[in-house]
Amino acid sequence: MATHKLLLLAGDGIGPEVMAEVKRVIGWLEREGLASFAIEEDLVGGSAYDAHKQAITDAAMDRAKAADAVLLAAVGGPKWADVPYEARPEAGLLRLRKDLELFANLRPAICYPALADASSLKREVVEGLDILIVRELTGGVYFGEPKTITDLGNGQKRAIDTQIYDTYEIDRIARVAFDLARTRRNKVTSSEKHNVMRTGVLWKEVVTKVHDADYKDVELEHNLADSLAMQLVRWPKQFDVIVTDNLFGDVLSDIAAMLTGSLGMLPSASLGAVDAATGKRSAMYEPVHGSAPDIAGKGIANPIAMIGSLAMALRYSFNQGEVADRIEAAISGVLDAGKRTADIRTAGAEVISTQAMGEAIVAELDAAR
Ligand code: NAI
Ligand code: MG
């Protein structure tokens, strides 16, 4: 069996608490002979700043590059509000994304049956929901130059952000989306605003070209981003994979996420390019939530987003989709049994600790084996 080289970056706040439960699941997978890991651990964010005065060290970056995948929990917190800008906790995250060239952000929105009533939408709208948003992560308006605020000297200021997309950036994210659709329900919805934005025109053109050349077997539709936002809350089950740019993806993925309940439930993946020499794709997996300083150290954080991120690593980096399915089924089983962490309290549920949730998921894996 191949040994997966995994770098664990627990970070700050609830990070170490939820990472401990991932280690529990990893321990079970190894004992069962389902997967083999070579684990390294390092610091990122505020904890790295406390030790090294920077949010991630070069040595940790080297380990991240050498790993098959990085698993990161969360960074940040009020303790580091006053550290220099370039050493702030988020800088560690940004450097990982940049140096590993993680251009594709995968945000699944899955509604576990037991939580369909926890959504703000009706049960029939979200029950059984399983969509995947693929957001371009390294281009677009967050990075384009010029990016300025100028004083016009007449009591007015002018702010400029610039949206730039090149063909290759759209081409590669489109391919990620089409490849993923083939492993799912074979449908891609591409979203932009070609009616008012030149980047939208190019986006639509390139996605269509990639589709017609190499993915004719996948259904492709185009949906303007504002219309898509409406459709997402009206009838989200019509979608399978949604591919969109950095800005629209930021907003749309948060909308999709909230269809399914708590922040503590949501994993994500960020994928880079395939290295031509080694065939390896750089990848980082992390929960969508932050370091939750308000509940850190209390042992009540929900570890499901973090454990779900491990499942994504198994599916997308290690070609072990079946093992990922088993982990997700175990999560579903624990929720079906009425066990909840405090953030997903539903009527009549039994509220348990972070550790008890990790233990329950392992017990469920055990029972189902
Ligand atoms: P947050 O996601 O940390 O917390 C928002 C709310 O959700 C809080 O009430 C928190 O208790 C709750 N929550 C989050 N994750 C939870 C979990 N697993 N289980 C139970 N409850 C959970 O976002 P917030 O408060 O805006 O940011 C806190 C810190 O985290 C800040 O320093 C921020 O910069 C950082 N942050 C880091 C991110 C990352 O590492 N990727 C992402 C978002 C924020
Ligand atoms: Mg966001």
UniProtKB/TrEMBL annotation:
Catalyzed reaction equations: (2R,3S)-3-isopropylmalate + NAD(+) = 4-methyl-2-oxopentanoate + CO2 + NADH
Manganese is among the record's keywords: yes
EC number: 1.1.1.85
Cofactor(s) demanded: Mn(2+); Mg(2+)
Stated family: Belongs to the isocitrate and isopropylmalate dehydrogenases family. LeuB type 1 subfamily.
Subcellular location: Cytoplasm
InterPro entries: IsoCit/isopropylmalate_DH_CS, IsoPropMal-DH-like_dom, Isopropylmalate_DH
Textual note on the cofactor: Binds 1 Mg(2+) or Mn(2+) ion per subunit.
PROSITE patterns given in the database record: IDH_IMDH
The protein's assembly and partners: Homodimer.
Residues noted as binding NAD(+) in the record, renumbered to the chain: 77-90, 290-302
GO molecular function, one term: 3-isopropylmalate dehydrogenase activity
Protein's recorded name: 3-isopropylmalate dehydrogenase
PANTHER family given in the database record: 3-ISOPROPYLMALATE DEHYDROGENASE
Domain of life: Bacteria
NCBIfam families the record matches: leuB (TIGR00169)
Physiological role: Catalyzes the oxidation of 3-carboxy-2-hydroxy-4-methylpentanoate (3-isopropylmalate) to 3-carboxy-4-methyl-2-oxopentanoate. The product decarboxylates to 4-methyl-2 oxopentanoate.
Location of the Isopropylmalate dehydrogenase-like domain: 5-361
Residues binding substrate, per UniProt: R97, R107, R135, D226
